Amino acid sequence: MLSSNNACSVPTSFRLTGIPGLESLHIWLSIPFGSMYLVAVMGNVTILAVVKMERSLHQPMYYFLCMLAVIDLVLSTSTMPKLLAIFWFGAHSIGVGACLAQMFFIHCFATVESGIFLAMAFDRYVAICDPLHHTSVLTHAVVVRLGLAALLRGVLYIGPLPLMIHLRLHLYQTKIIAHSYCEHMAVVTLACGDTRLNDLYGMGIGFLVLILDSLAIAASYMMIFRAVMGLATPEARLKMLGTCGSHICAILIFYVPIAVSSLTYRFGHDVPSHTHILLANLYLLIPPVLNPVVYAVRTKQIRERLLHVFKAGAQPR
User: Fold this and answer.
1) Contact (Cβ atoms closer than 8 angstroms) between residue 125 and residue 224
2) How far is residue 120's CA from residue 116's CA, in Å, rounded to a whole number?
3) pTM, full prediction
4) What tens digit of pLDDT does each residue of 275-291 get?
5) Chain centroid to CA 183: how far?
6) Does residue 225 contact residue 121 with C-beta atoms inside 8 Å?
7) Could you say which DSSP state residue 212 is in?
8) In 3D, which of 261, 255, 248, 154 has the Cα closest to residue 214?
9) Which of 110, 151, 178, 304 lies in the 20 to 30 Å Cα band around 120?
């Protein structure tokens, strides 16, 4: 327990507030958040099942899509069950170890997802700019190595975040985290003592992941567009651009909410705290919800397989 004068002490647990300022609406907020989480789980599990069943989808692009589906399931499941428990049961308490584990999974798999988008951009670049060598360059082994490299990068980049908190920050002014999950800066700002190293490392990783990855993806698409514009007919150009449409939509779905949430957190000092928290939750929930929808709508093979399954299920036995 902490003393009443807010003296620094070592907490055994933290208290997540949920959506501060909207406590009276928690039960109502659980309806859209719970529905979105259910859609995210069902959609991503469906994508995994369709790719597994449909042999024509056993290609690099769809293996990367399966990796995205698994990552989105981890991201949404790292936050939504606890948020819904806060909304429904008032289960605000979270152990320090569980808090650091949640922090690791959220930031690690967001980093891994960015890495998978980078790998997908490389896949599209090879498929369009060097189609004759696509199958020899993007072999199954290469796809697995790219996925493992994205995972390893996420672990190496994000592992020090909770580790530095565990080793360096033992005393806290309060155990109340004004957030719905254990976000890195939300925990660090509560600590007593010098937190500059934690702040600098967190910002540095954010720059490496978001800025450098997005620049690399943008560069690959500039080369793709240049190659597409060199095609002879408008029909050929549209067909090639169409193969990239789902990927571009998924990239925007991932990066735009993160950018808006980050900019609001850094510069939106007059923005109410509940708006910050809602945005932070949505940027973890929107990609898992929309990615399966985008790929199901824009990918012919997935769309046809889903229609076949639905028609088979609708037939009388």
Assistant:
1) yes
2) 6
3) 0.91
4) 889 988 988 999 999 99
5) 14
6) no
7) I
8) 255
9) 304
